[in-house]
Amino acid sequence: YIYETGAHNGKRVQALGGAKNHMVVMPDADIDQAVDGLIGAAYGSAGERCMAISVAVLVGDVADKIIPKLAARAKALKIKNGMELDAEMGPIVTAQARDKIEDYIAIGVEEGATLVVDGRGHKVEGYENGFFTGGTLFDHATAEMRIYKEEIFGPVLVCVRVKDFAEAVKLVNDHEYGNGVACYTSDGNVAREFARRIQVGMVGINVPIPVPMAWHGFGGWKRSLFGDMHAYGEEGVRFYTKQKSVMQRWSSSIARGAEFVLPRSKNITAPITLVTGGSRGIGAAIALLCARAGHDVAINYASDAAAGDSVAAQVRALGRRAITVQADVADEAQVLAMFSRIDTELGPLTALVNNAGIVAPGMRLDEMSVDRWQRVFNVNVIGSLLCCRAAVLRMSTRHGGTGGAIVNLSSRAAVFGSPGIYVDYAASKGAIDSLTVGLARELIAEGIRVNGVRPGIIDTDIHASGGMGAMAHEAAAGVPIGRMGTALEVAQAVVWLLSNASSYTVGSMLDVGGGR
Questions:
Q1: 13-37 burial, b for 16+ CB within 10 Å, e for fewer?
Q2: Which of 88, 177, 335, 463 is surrounded by the fewest CB atoms within 10 Å?
Q3: How far apart are CA 269 and CA 64, in angstroms?
Q4: Residue 142 φ/ψ region, left for φ over 0, alpha for ψ in the -120 to 50 degree band, beta for the rest
């Protein structure tokens, strides 16, 4: 009524609604930490606060671990006069509120939920006429029950069991209220997906009551908020103020002549990055880390369409655009077609990662064929040159571009030579080192930074493709750090070189070799 009447009369209204706050506990959560969070958030202030947790969503077999602990803690709550320093829970605000809470407990029993701890009729010595209800715990509640659907506003925690993460997210999103929610997990990917998918205004990760700091907005979604103006933060400032925009131009301005259209800014878009050989190993790790850094990604692959599609799906799941492009980087026509598709489907390229590369079976030079050399150099060197040329024609300010970055994947083999195994591969990577240094100096004045990364012994299947998988694992014992590197560790170096954090890094070869 207040919201409708105020809005009807042209008034701004901050109107916060009801709440039914959930805490999702994943199987990998720290159980003791989750129990602490639930006990404090459900029973603190006798559950009479808008951010109290009133529903525990227990995923998989975590319920069997957590319910006994919750029951023991609920029974042991120190319920006293709230002014006593050691009190963990005080009285209910009025007799009517207490009676309403205890009526809901009775409803829960009638509906078939398991009453694990019954707080009705709780008495506190010295305050026999006080309005006390003990901590109450229900298990095996369902989404159809009133104790799940309706706001009780008291010390009643309702536990709902679900089979998996997807069912937990759906349960929370289907509720009419969307005030606050928490998720307890040890998995960062789960936390990220939870925060992205959940349709609730205030979200805590391993934080039971996610009340934001003052400079962020406070308030929920759905029926937890009327209108769209939250309290606190920037929205709170806008509620009490009016904005004024001032446009100025002085006589010394470089602008001259009449303007017949509104001034426009250049569109601000996400970086668009091509990763060659992006369907597996280091290339796939680079593509995914680029997506996490906010890039839209073109994923090139030679033959494994399914692998390319899998990486693209993961990029899209992170909220970024992705396309897959089949192309042999050693074939000029296919490279030109690949860049044309990127222009059409993603937009102007801003970064290139020359990752595509091959090795041939390990052997001595005097056992190698010319055909082998040509194939290794065609992919590793000619392919990089073709892609660099196509990228330069799009990114260089000389050709009307806005600049960008190129990272070439070399190898520590370029330094050690890989004698008796694949000196041809090492020689091709030596060529990449030279290309990187020369091209960096050629292009920096045109807004393009070029750098390289030289991985050492990395745990990918490229060694197996050269028949040297076992040897690579054995050689890792001689790396000072004592192990093989990971594709992610290489990707982190590449994405750093693509970012503004490396803006003064030009023509450098970054070694990711564990000290070898």
A1: ebbbbbbbbbbbbbbebeeeebbeb
A2: 88
A3: 48
A4: beta
Cite the active site residues. 50
Q: Which residue has the tokens 């490229």?
A: 462
- Distance between first and last Cα of the chain: 72
Are 507 and 445 in contact by the 8 Å Cβ rule? The answer is no
Asked if residue 146 lies in contact with residue 164, where contact means CB atoms within 8 angstroms, the answer is no
Give start and end residues of each alpha helix (H) in 265-304.
Answer: 281-292
pLDDT for the residue 257? 55
Cβ atoms 323, 299 nearer than 8 A: yes
pLDDT in tens, 140-150: 999 999 999 99
Where would I find the beta strands (DSSP E) of 251-303? 272-275, 296-301
Tens of pLDDT, residue by residue over 425-462, are 999 999 999 999 999 999 999 999 999 999 998 988 76
Query: What is d(CA 185, CA 133) in angstroms, rounded to the nearest whole number?
Result: 31
208-226 burial: b if 16+ Cβ within 10 Å, else e: bbbebeeeebbbbbbebbb
What is the pairing mode between strands 177-178 and 221-222?
Answer: antiparallel
Asked if residues 319 and 196 have their Cβ atoms less than 8 Å apart, the reply is yes
Pick the closest to residue 380 from 437, 433, 304 (CA basis).
Answer: 433
Of 62, 56, 59, nearest to 22 (Cα)?
56
* Cβ-proximal residues to 282 (8 Å cutoff; 6+ apart), any chain: 355, 409, 455, 458, 460, 487, 490, 491
> What does the block give as tokens for 164?
């998996």
Break the chain down into helix, strand, coil percent, rounded to 5. Answer: 40, 15, 40
Euclidean distance between CA atoms 138 and 174, whole angstroms:
21
Q: Encoding tokens for residue 219?
A: 């308030």
- Joined tokens for residue 399: 């050709």
Distance CA 32, CA 432 (A): 53
- In this model, does residue 464 exceed pLDDT 90? no
Quickly count: other Cβ atoms within 10 Å of residue 442's Cβ. 14
pLDDT at residue 258 greater than cutoff 60: no
